[in-house]
Amino acid sequence: MTMYTLHMAQADFVAWRDNARRLLAARVSPGDVLWQDDDSAGDLFASGDTDLPPPSETPLALKLSRQHLRRLECASHYWPTHQQECRWALLYRVVWRLAQGEGEALLAGDSDGGVVEQRIKAVNHEVHHMHAFLRFHQQPVTPEEQHAPEFIAWFEPRHDVLEAAARHFIDRMGQHRWLIMTPEGAILCDGRQWHIERPESGTFTVQDYQALSTMEDDAEDLWLAYYASTFNPARLNEKTMVRSMPSRFWRHMPERVLITGLISHARHGARRLGQDSRLADKRGHTITLPK
Amino acid sequence: MQLTDKLIVLADAAKYDASCASSGAPKRSSRGQKGLGATNGNGICHSFTPDGRCVALLKILMTNFCLYDCQYCINRRSSNVPRARFSVDEIVRLTLDFYRRNLISGLFLSSGIIRSNDYTMEALVRVARTLRVEHQFRGYIHLKTIPDASPDLIRQAGLYADRLSVNVELPTSQSLNRLAPEKSDTTIRLAMSTIRDGLDEATAEPRAPRFSPGGQSTQMIVGADDTDDHTILGNVQSLYGDYRLKRVYYSAFSPIPESPSSVPLIAPPLLREHRLYQADFLIRGYGFRADELLTGPGNLSLDIDPKLAWALNHRELFPIDLDQADMYMIARVPGIGITSAKRIETLRRERRIRYTDLTRLGCSMKKLAPFITTQDYRPRQAGLERQALLAQMQTSTPAQMALL
């Protein structure tokens, strides 16, 4: 029995699809393929790149609906941890089983379909996190710098969501010029066209981003004033906050500087009232009705 | 007064409104166009404050000067709070500045009543119009409607806002009479009907002017009076039916400075508020009737959720066989939501359901265990009495003592 090793040089979905098609045509079962991402360390048992066998006399083929294809592609944007199964191997086992007539292989209740579903959920959730917690910083731009971005942001997503999430900002920002940087790539939009830039080697770092951002942004002070004031100390509930806004995002959000202070202030008595304590010391006044 | 100071006063004054949803707007995009903003129907929570509530919109009052003297409200005329008023330009500037930095999805604007109801409402509409027309702002706008404002102004508001809301304020008209003497249950309901008519018209006639595409919502304060949950849920059910409401929000009454003696000075009943939201969700999404959840006067149980409480009261209907039961009934099993119920139905067309499938679907196994059977599973607890089962299901985690 031959083991086949497939190097996914460009770890992308289209390349996987071509490979999967050829493997199905040759009736190679999932157990006989070793998938290697370009970033995964070599497997102890991997032998060099093996040529795939010619198509079998009874080739397997699979027609997937567009919706199923989209689900598989979405799941392929999930970056597994080292203990988790390689994304390409999982997806190949799913299409193999579908080709054998096991329709349940893509359903959430199935052992493989369940994992696919979890990964889709995690990817979509990360897209949502990026929509929500990314913060643009306004840059001073002189009239000579007509192409420099007016708004820049740094974000560290956990999965490959840069492109999926960027569409939202293209819709949102109108004709503004902006830049979003992540370790794996940056999106640059000039108000009409956009493109993705990949780092020449390795990854972009937060220092690369900080080299771009020069000035303080005045609107941030207004935002901090709003954030502290809209907080209701009488309802203190940190658990829900941390569950909804995981702390790994805080590092690049301006409000991070307020959170612990607001919590301890609330714990030490401010909880008695809903009002922002900055207002308690200010002079107030009651209103008399006009006669 | 500096803009920052105004913001502190008027955000503090507005935060007792629980609604923060930015969902339900039609699809809009500014791709390559003049103007700013997009909506796609889904809400986004851009931040969370340490009270666990989301910040999706810039939620402010236009002014906290107010002629009314509602006892539960921090901005009542007899309250000794700092007062401020934003100009139209200030609100527009804050909204756009925050929006460009991805801090918010839009604006939630309410106001104290100054001069007259129409004057106030007109000022609110002017802010929305400036944002939409002058700045071509395509983000989310929620306008709080002044109940006594003229129907014509409400129509104009619907032209620019994604959602309109009128607060019923308190669960019953008796409480409203006692605590908010200037407000009247009748005019509040009239305003809600005006909005409903606008919504009906916009859906019935394709050429009708745009009207609040995200629908209308309302809010009631819980815990400022002594109305029980049974009455609340009954009234809520008729509100949903009568006014095509998208949502009813419940706001646990927070103690306010110099609290008048007519309202309690106690910690907000957060768990009660949570149970009401759960019951509300069961009424809206699961086809429960209010009188199924609470058969007589009293409050929802605080220690178990309303769906579990209902199932424990109806042991005769359970356990159900997941391979046979209606989807409607599967969704009524504690621990199984609508999505999981649909997935169970799809899966059982391929093969029979196994117990471990439910784990993968993310159901709450501890809750559902006594209420279902599958081909490889029968509940041990089938014979247990309600009380014994309840005791078995509750884990007592030690709770820290409350500060208040």
UniProtKB/TrEMBL annotation, chain A:
Top-level taxon of origin: Bacteria
Record InterPro entries: DNA_repair_put, DUF4130
Sequence ranges assigned to domain DUF4130 in this UniProt record: 87-255
Protein name per UniProt: DUF4130 domain-containing protein
Automatic annotation (TrEMBL), chain B:
Recorded GO MF terms: catalytic activity; iron-sulfur cluster binding; metal ion binding
Keyword Zinc in annotation: no
Domain Radical SAM core span(s) in chain numbering: 61-177
Keyword annotations of the record: Iron, Iron-sulfur, Metal-binding, S-adenosyl-L-methionine
Named cofactor requirement(s): [4Fe-4S] cluster
Gene3D superfamilies: Aldolase class I (3.20.20.70)
Signal peptide limits: none
Name of the protein in its database record: Radical SAM core domain-containing protein
Organism whose genome encodes this protein: Kushneria phyllosphaerae
